């Protein structure tokens, strides 16, 4: 008798992403590097986990029903994750985005049936987040039967990522010596950090943030790479559980992405490039035979018009980024 190995619906594919041993990119060093391929989630990013947990838990708690309007602020990936989940459950979705959302993400949202509102006013903190959140409040008032997933304050966000670090443990057979995590809402970061603390793991947790992000009190400035950094402090952050913070310039995100593509044939998003550049900053200090895990949060196809576009790079970073064979 043939055992049925099918899965139930597209949302059953969320999570259990591969952990891949990458031997080329840091070959000159003596540590072992692994990439957690969150880009392999069906919606293309780690935000699938967050979206799925928040919406399903809200259903379970009676906070939403089939005619509830879902309204959220997003720079792209959370919106795509929500759009997939909401389409599956037949929910109307309105997203508040800003000009940094890329063209492919916009097309994906339209294809999934999401509606979106674009805000264009800077918030004075190097981004558009506070402006987006203000618009979300206006829309929630407009639609009485509405629900805001509120990835910035909803504790289902970090809870969604406790599973992720346990997947890494299952793949390796142990917790890694180092883990580098891109930060935005800090949901992923704190989900990992709290679970590692709960299990008394000795893993060094390294937060990778954007230069110009205020999460760790950096001076706010314009950031062009979406999906990492924030113009407000995180509701989830507990710095006592973080061993190190590394700030990465937009230029370093770009060069890191191209290095990952060139050395490992991995087409990844901007925060993955930040992970690569962050590791390069500490590589000489990592112990021999140590295990290092980087979180690759999303796919690179969404950045073909920006990070992987020679003209875009020349326009915004003409003197600081030199990429061969873009």
Tell me what the structure shows.
It is built from ten helices and ten strands. Helix 7 links the parallel strand 7 and strand 8. By secondary structure, the chain is an alpha/beta fold. The longest helix is centred in the last third of the chain and has 15 residues. The strands form two sheets. It has a six-stranded mixed sheet, sandwiched between helices. A four-stranded parallel sheet has the order 5-4-3-6, sandwiched between helices. Keywords: Pyridoxal phosphate, Transferase.
Q: In total, how many domains does the architecture comprise? A: 2
Coarse morphology: globular
User: How would you spell out the order of helices and strands?
Assistant: EEHEHEHEHEHHEHEEHHEH
CATH architecture classification of the largest domain: 3-Layer(aba) Sandwich
Structural class computed from helices and strand pairing: alpha/beta
Q: How many beta strands in the DSSP annotation?
A: 10
Q: In percent, how helical is the residue content? A: 25-40%
Uncertain spans = none
Family: Belongs to the cysteine synthase/cystathionine beta-synthase family. SbnA subfamily.
Keywords: Pyridoxal phosphate, Transferase
Pathway: Siderophore biosynthesis
Subunit structure: Homodimer.
């Amino acid at each position: 008798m043939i055992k049925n190995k099918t899965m139930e619906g597209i949302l059953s594919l969320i999570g259990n992403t591969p952990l891949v041993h990458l031997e080329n990119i840091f070959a000159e060093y003596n540590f072992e590097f692994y990439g957690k391929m969150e880009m392999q989630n069906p919606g293309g990013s780690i935000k699938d986990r967050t979206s799925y947990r928040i919406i399903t838990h809200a259903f379970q708690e009676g906070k939403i029903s089939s005619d509830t309007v879902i309204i959220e602020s997003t720079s792209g990936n959370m919106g795509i994750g929500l759009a997939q989940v909401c389409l599956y459950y037949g929910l109307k979705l309105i997203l508040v985005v800003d000009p940094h959302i890329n063209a492919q993400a916009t097309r994906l949202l339209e294809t999934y049936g999401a509606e979106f509102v674009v805000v264009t006013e800077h918030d004075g903190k190097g981004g558009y987040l506070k402006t987006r959140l203000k618009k979300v409040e206006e829309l929630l008032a407009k639609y009485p039967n509405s629900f805001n997933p509120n990835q910035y304050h909803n504790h289902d966000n970090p809870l969604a990522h406790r599973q992720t670090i346990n997947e890494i443990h299952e793949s390796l057979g142990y917790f890694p010596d180092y883990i580098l995590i891109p930060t935005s809402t800090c949901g992923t970061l704190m989900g990992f950090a709290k679970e590692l603390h709960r299990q008394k793991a000795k893993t060094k947790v390294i937060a990778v943030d954007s230069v110009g992000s205020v999460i760790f009190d950096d001076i706010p400035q314009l950031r062009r790479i979406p999906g990492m950094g924030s113009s407000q402090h995180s509701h989830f952050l507990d710095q006592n559980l973080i061993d190190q913070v590394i700030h990465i310039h937009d230029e370093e995100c770009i060069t890191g992405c191209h290095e990952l593509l060139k050395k490992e044939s991995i087409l990844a998003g901007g925060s993955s490039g930040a992970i690569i550049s962050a590791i390069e900053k500490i590589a000489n200090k990592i112990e021999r035979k140590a295990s290092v895990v980087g979180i690759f949060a999303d796919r690179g196809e969404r950045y073909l018009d920006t990070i992987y576009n020679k003209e875009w790079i020349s326009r915004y970073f003409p003197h600081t980024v030199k990429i061969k064979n873009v």
